[in-house]
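Hi W., the succinic acid complex you wanted:
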Amino acid sequence: MADLSADLGFRTLKNPVIAASGTFGYGEEFLPFYDLDVLGAIVMKGIFREERPGNPPPRLHETPAGLLNSIGLAGPGSAALQEIIRRLHARTPVPIIVNVCGGDDDEFVEVAALFSGMDEVAMLELNISCPNVKKGGACPAQDAGHTSRLVKRVKERIRKPLIVKLSPNAADIVGVAQAAQDAGADALSLVNTFLGLAVDLEARRPVFANVYAGLSGPAVKPLALRLVREVCLKAYVPVIGIGGIASGRDALDYILVGASAVQVGTVNFYDPAGAARIVTEIEAEMERLKIRDLSEIRGKLQA
Ligand code: SIN
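Structure:
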């Protein structure tokens, strides 16, 4: 039988499939569909200190093989999420990752420290890459210096492994990745969504109030796979690949270019059991290709 375990160095997941932030609610919403413990881990929707209404509607717009979102990190605030996490953890042992957000660096540090103190939380993911909060998609992950300063400050205040989520909209994602790992990130996850634009021709207006929005889904997979490969060529911490993964083969493609695990996102919207399906497809593909464990192919792209 194929061994699907995914070694992140600081922790081994039972398999490499992680439900991505913002596409899996707070886990509870998916309990009616399957046993969440079949996944490697789940990431909670991004959280700030206080409740946030997010951006005005519309927030979603379908594109060919893709989805633009401008949610604006709506959420119930940290105290409410702590309650949700306690409830969820009582129902499933699946490792829980908290996606930490902040309007400024102080808030990132404060929210990270708060969730670092929860036994029910396995790891933190620092969301420095949401394109839907500041004008023009600006975010800390566009700047290596800012990323470095923020990661250092967060690391000083937490005692859980820290994943730093990177943006494909940075001019130099490899430089930002190096800054994050040198500052103490335990792992990198990439990529968040690609900055895109949809317009309403009749109204002569952008579809979204924030003008730009984040593109995800199968349309972005080749773009994301390239960026993940480039980061993996330089990274000395584990990389979690994200972008358009909709099948077991897609997931194995990311492992082949060097990822240690993957996050699956948009697929959860149109196939609520999609993440669980991807786990079984990875196993079937590994058996078909006679791959005993993921280290046999991790980073083994011959190019
Ligand atoms: C959003 O809430 O706007 C999307 C989350 C993200 O891109 O990090």
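Residues 6-54+72-193+217-296 form a domain with the TIM Barrel fold (CATH 3.20.20.70).

W.
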